[in-house]
Automatic annotation (TrEMBL):
Domain IF140/IFT172/WDR19 TPR, chain residue ranges per copy: 6-354
Keyword terms of this UniProt record: Cell projection, Cilium, Repeat, WD repeat
Chief place of localization: other
Pfam families: TPR_IF140-IFT172, TPR_IF140_C
Domain of life: Eukaryota
One GO CC term on file: intraciliary transport particle A
Organism this protein belongs to: Parascaris univalens (Nematode worm)
Domain IF140 C-terminal TPR: 362-487
InterPro entries: TPR_IF140/IFT172/WDR19, TPR_IF140_C
One record GO biological process: intraciliary retrograde transport
Protein name: Uncharacterized protein
């Protein structure tokens, strides 16, 4: 037909074709079916409904996806099961709402709530749930609805005995953290409190944080209490609780307890708090964190003392090198002397370097004396011992040049070193001339052994060893034995086999 093509081309077929064919329903129905235009299908369905052809109307309403009209017809005809099936299958909001209203008017509250929910008209579902005391469904409906419905539902549950847990949960979801916490405290909803606490941070209301901390203190959950006190900027209270209850100061907690410069602009006050955190770490033997906090507080000396307690040699050396502080250099060198520096050349070099940078020449001299004694006791190497004492002598001379207070003590120390060096040189000389003039060497050895206080410079056993070996080589065993007896009288505990 040319006419319908023209109407379609001009997009007026939805009005003009029904007008022209209205007197010939069969042709018009054929046209509607053929076109599959939803607007035409809906119009034709309405026409069929108006003339009482409900079955035909239902078919065309379904074809046009006008499910509201389908449900309306089915409800009118009493075909509720079919209406329910279609509403559930299509989930059309308008259709579900119509069916929900039908069920409400029919007294089927459960079905009404179900279809109000599918229609996303949660306020109607909530209204019905409240009116009919449907406590189990109301919470889920409020969660789906959100907004003010959450608060209204929470208030509803709050007034019901034994339903406080749902009220707390709904207040929490509504963002009313303070109200949720308050109700949870009053009703002792411990599990809910743990859940709410996860949403608290430094941006939360300080009053809420303090209240949460109070609750956790009362329930002996001190770590959480410390965290919330710190979030509330109550750093002093948090640190005191750490110390009192020995709450482990982890790296994360230590950072939470560290106030920013913006939070506490007063540097003195901030440093005092940092030192309290560090003191707490020391109390718990958490020396590395303590050192970090002391450093942040500008107390480098206490930071070094904490590292010394940790025994972390690598960090101690690193810290001393970076600190550029006399006392810290001395502490580091003193610590290194407690280690096996005798076999580790690096330790020896650091000890020398740190004492030198600290200008602690007396302490460096004492270290060289210790080195000399090791050479004598462990290796019988008097040449190296003499070299070490010469270094000690040099240090004391430098100290005399720099010091003006303890000149007398330093002078006495220098005299003592001079005397020891002289005695060691004598002993080295005795050993050297023995190969060419044994008798003179033995005479000098006897004289050296008879010197008062010789043991402070040379091991008496080493001097007697020269004389005993000499007599044994000469087969003068009686004399050798006599010398052994003399040695044992002078040093009863000496091991003559060494």
């Amino acid at each position: 037909m040319v006419w319908n093509f023209s109407y379609e081309k001009s997009d007026t077929q939805r009005f003009e074709v029904p007008r022209m064919l209205f007197d010939d329903p069969k042709v018009l129905e054929t046209y509607v079916k053929k076109r599959r235009d939803q607007n035409l299908q809906r119009w034709w369905a309405q026409y069929l409904e108006s003339i009482g052809d409900f079955s035909g109307a239902k078919g065309f309403y379904q074809a046009s996806k006008d499910y509201l009209s389908v449900i309306r017809l089915l409800c009118y005809k009493g075909l509720i099961d079919e209406a329910t099936e279609i509403a559930n299958k299509t989930a059309d909001k308008a259709a579900c709402y119509h069916l929900a209203c039908f069920f409400e008017n029919s007294g089927d509250v459960n079905s009404a709530v179900h279809f109000f929910t599918k229609a996303h008209t949660y306020s109607s579902a909530i209204r019905l749930a409240k009116e009919h005391n449907m406590k189990e469904k109301l919470a889920n409906l409020a969660l789906m609805a959100g907004g003010s419905d959450l608060v209204e539902a929470a208030r509803y549950y709050e007034d019901l005995p034994g339903q406080a847990d749902k009220a707390v949960m709904l207040y929490h979801k509504a963002g009313m953290i303070g109200r949720a916490l308050d109700l949870a405290f009053r009703t002792e909803q411990f599990s809910a409190l743990d859940l709410i606490a996860k949403d608290l941070d430094e941006r939360s209301d300080p009053r809420v944080l303090e209240r949460a901390a109070e609750f956790f203190i009362n329930n002996q959950q001190y770590e959480k209490a410390v965290q919330f006190l710190a979030y509330a900027k109550n750093y002093t209270g948090a640190i005191e609780l750490c110390q009192k209850k020995n709450v482990p100061v982890t790296e994360q907690l230590a950072e939470i307890l560290t106030p920013s410069k913006e939070t506490i602009p007063n540097m003195i006050e901030r440093n005092e708090l940092l030192e309290k955190v560090a003191d707490c770490c020391v109390q718990q033997r958490n020396y590395h964190f303590a050192a970090k906090k002391y450093t942040q507080a500008g107390n480098m000396l206490q930071a070094m003392r904490s590292l010394l307690k940790s025994g972390d040699t690598e960090k101690i050396i690193f810290f001393a090198k970076k600190a550029h502080n006399k006392e810290i250099y001395i502490l580091a060198a003193n610590f290194l002397q407690t280690l096996n520096w005798k076999t580790d050349g690096n330790f020896m070099r650091y000890i020398e370097t740190f004492y030198t940078k600290a200008k602690a020449y007396e302490l460096l001299a004492s270290f060289y004396e210790a080195c000399a004694q090791v050479e004598i006791d462990d290796y019988r190497d008097y040449s190296k011992a003499n070299a070490a004492l010469a270094e000690a002598q040099r240090c004391i001379k430098t100290a005399l040049e720099d010091e003006s207070k303890n000149v007398i003590e330093l002078s006495e120390k220098l005299d003592e070193l001079n005397h020891r060096i002289a005695n060691i040189k004598k002993f080295i000389g005795i050993r050297n001339i023995y190969e060419t003039d044994p008798n003179d060497a033995i005479r000098q050895a006897q004289a050296l052994a008879d010197e008062k206080g010789i043991e402070e410079s040379v091991r008496i056993g080493d001097i007697y060893a020269v004389m005993i070996v000499h007599n044994a080589r000469k087969s003068n065993f009686k004399k050798a034995y006599s010398l052994i007896c003399q040695l044992q009288e002078r040093q009863p505990r000496i091991d003559v086999s060494r």
